[in-house]
Design brief:
single chain, about 475 residues, alpha+beta, 4 domains, 11-stranded mixed sheet, about 40% helix, elongated
Length: about 475
């Protein structure tokens, strides 16, 4: 059938067949050219797969492909979710531009948008995306088999993504570095191994995420074997950015003198809290300054050490609480006064090592910001249902977490707006997305469009994001 088709039709057909890797067929019906995809459907009666062709759309003589339109059974108009659709679409524009040359850009962004709005399994992504207003202009092929193949493509080309991650980072900027373990229920996934998480004994995958200190937004992601320890994963991560001027704010579990020395040799900045029993912390600390943090006074000091500047902090309120707790134990004979005298000078003391020579209050605030991001990250992992995976292929698992990464970028941008308006704790990202789904756009068969009635609460939310939700 293709031999007798016009050259423009042939060219479009062969290009789509090459890109989609499917069993596409071209048929001529009534002088028009229609594109079908052949699928194997299980026949219960014959007890074997049988071939079935499904119409995808048509190709006109100029080579233009027109996707099959969904049938409208009950109404000549369609109602689309507008507010949440336009918000996440516009928040994804930076990544959409960076991925300009990626062969599956539209599918990837569509998956990330659905993941950010309403996490769905691959088989339901297409139907969820079609409810969004952006589906009228962005028309990716969201067939579940194609999406699964695209996840594998992303994983196979994961090293290439690091060039993109570098473009997302501020030169000389600091990164929050976080690591989490994701339980895997697939018996055939090689990445899944017994790890070091004390909370469970299942096979797991190690996922790391780096956030920009300046923007609070994720800038890089990677996936490792479940048995890879924190410090080792950090080493792999740094190797990929050895020529990029960045720095890290890490948690206490990642500290080691050898790791800090490696960072110094690579001229990478670091802010790392010390373990409470670190030999770098003196028995008696002489504090020489103080500052306020979230309404609480904090004592501080700074001095040079062999691996950087040692910053010491003490929260008097926390010290008083810990002192009272130990004295209660002394009073009940669970501990003695010797134990109290040994501990009292270090109660409420918190130490950080860094190569940066800054005001102690700045170092303290940057580290505390990391704790806030970590807490939100833990919450959002649950929101995105990414705390477990049934994927059975290493590359697809990596592709899956790249989609999660893109969705988190969208959600953290919403979070930053809430933070800038002092609304953290009063409104959640989930609440914003849900309420904006009530802002609907009605499209008539004639092409006429108009908004459905918008609730008052939604109007207030739109005011927060007025530059991102165009009202026409």
């Amino acid at each position: 059938m293709i031999d007798n088709a016009p050259d423009a039709v042939k060219e479009t057909f062969l290009k789509m067949k090459s890109e989609q890797g499917k069993k596409l067929e071209l048929k001529v019906i009534g002088g028009n050219y229609y594109l079908y995809v052949a699928k194997g459907i299980w026949d219960r009666k014959k007890k074997k797969p049988v071939k079935k062709t499904v119409l995808m759309g048509s190709i006109d003589e100029t080579g233009t492909f027109r996707e099959k339109r969904p049938k409208r059974i009950f109404s000549s108009s369609r109602i689309y979710e507008y507010g949440n659709s336009q918000l996440v679409w516009n928040l994804a524009q930076d990544m959409y531009a960076i991925m300009e040359k990626h062969p599956y850009r539209d599918q990837i962004i569509a998956m990330a948008m659905v993941k950010a709005i309403d996490p769905m399994p691959l088989r339901l992504v297409a139907s969820r995306f079609q409810r969004l207003y952006i589906s009228r202009s962005l028309k990716p092929n969201l067939d579940p088999d194609d999406l699964s193949r695209i996840l594998g493509y992303i994983g196979n080309h994961f090293p290439d993504l690091y060039e993109m991650f570098k473009r997302l980072m501020d030169p000389g900027g600091l990164l929050f570095y976080d690591m989490t373990s994701i339980i895997s229920y697939s018996k055939n996934l090689k990445l899944a191994e017994k790890g070091y998480n004390p909370d469970h004994d299942e096979n797991q995958v190690t996922v790391i995420m780096a956030f920009s200190v300046k923007s609070w937004i994720p800038v890089a992601v990677d996936v490792f074997y479940g048995s890879v320890k924190d410090i080792k994963s950090l080493g792999y991560f740094i190797d990929r950015f050895h020529d990029h001027e960045i720095g890290f704010i890490m948690d206490r579990g990642l500290f080691s003198e050898s790791m800090v020395k490696d960072l110094r040799s690579m001229r990478m900045h670091y802010i790392v809290p010390l373990r409470r029993n670190s030999t770098l912390i003196p028995d008696r600390v002489k504090f020489d300054s103080a500052f306020m943090y979230n309404g609480r006074p904090i004592r501080s000091s700074r001095k040079a050490s062999r691996i950087g500047y040692l910053y010491m902090f003490q929260d008097p309120m926390m010290r008083a609480e810990k002192e009272s707790s130990i004295l209660r134990d002394v009073a009940s004979s669970r501990k003695d006064m010797e134990y109290f005298e040994d501990k009292k000078d270090r109660l409420g003391v918190f130490a950080i090592i860094s190569d940066l020579d800054r005001n102690p209050s700045e170092i303290y605030e940057q580290y505390k910001s990391r704790e806030e991001v970590e807490q939100v990250f833990d919450t959002m992992k649950g929101d995105l249902e990414s705390d477990k995976t049934y994927l059975r292929d290493n590359e697809k698992v990596k592709g899956f977490f790249f989609i999660v990464f893109l969705a988190l970028r969208i959600r953290f941008k919403i979070l930053k707006v809430l933070k800038d308006h002092n609304l953290l704790g009063k409104m959640s990202v989930n609440e914003i997305i849900f309420e904006l789904s009530k802002m609907e756009r009605i499209v008539e068969k004639s092409g006429a469009e108009y908004f459905a009635a918008v609730p008052k609460k939604v109007e207030k939310i739109v005011d927060l994001f007025k530059d991102l939700i165009p009202m026409g």
